[in-house]
Amino acid sequence: MSRARFDTLVAAPSPSPAELDALWADLATVRVEEMLGSWRGGALLKGEGATGHPANGLLTKIGWHGKRFDSALEGHPLICRDADGNLYSNAAAAGGGHASLWEVGFRGETTATMVYDAMPVFDHFKKVDDDTVMGIMNGKLEAVFGTADHYYFWLEREHA
Questions:
Q1: Whole-prediction pTM value?
Q2: DSSP result, 19-34
Q3: What is the residue-wise DSSP string for 48-98?
Q4: By the 8 A CB rule, do 45 and 20 touch?
Q5: Whole-Å CA distances, 86 to 40, 92, 97
Q6: Which pLDDT tens digit goes with each residue over 15-53?
Q7: CA distance 74 to 150
């Protein structure tokens, strides 16, 4: 049931934060170990301004592809594509390009959370299925993006 709701919201041109929050509330929490590996990602709130989030513009500009977690203490939140289509960890972009995974409380639950090394931002994760998670970016977003609104996104596990 949650997978069908997730797919509907991913396909929607502009799901509301209320719809995304309702889905989030129904998803299972994730352990840090479940987040290890490479992930392809995308936005749940598309566009910028009134229809989306300023993070969309930044991620599009830098060619964001997803995230990679080599261990709990070695995370690469900004895996990007270069002009030739090659993937690389963009350590020069916003957030310093490095992060770690911790179990953190958010909305009354403890779930795997990515903590950026160089900015006051957290990405909380919950499980859609074994290969897909939903994320909510939280923290001092106004200082980083000029808005206090959460950023909603998804990650899908990449298999070698």
A1: 0.91
A2: HHHHHHHHSEE--GGG
A3: SGGGS-HHHHHHHHTTEEEEEEEETTEEEEEEEE-TTS-EEE-TTSGGGG-
A4: yes
A5: 14, 16, 17
A6: 888 999 999 999 999 999 999 999 999 988 765 544 467
A7: 24
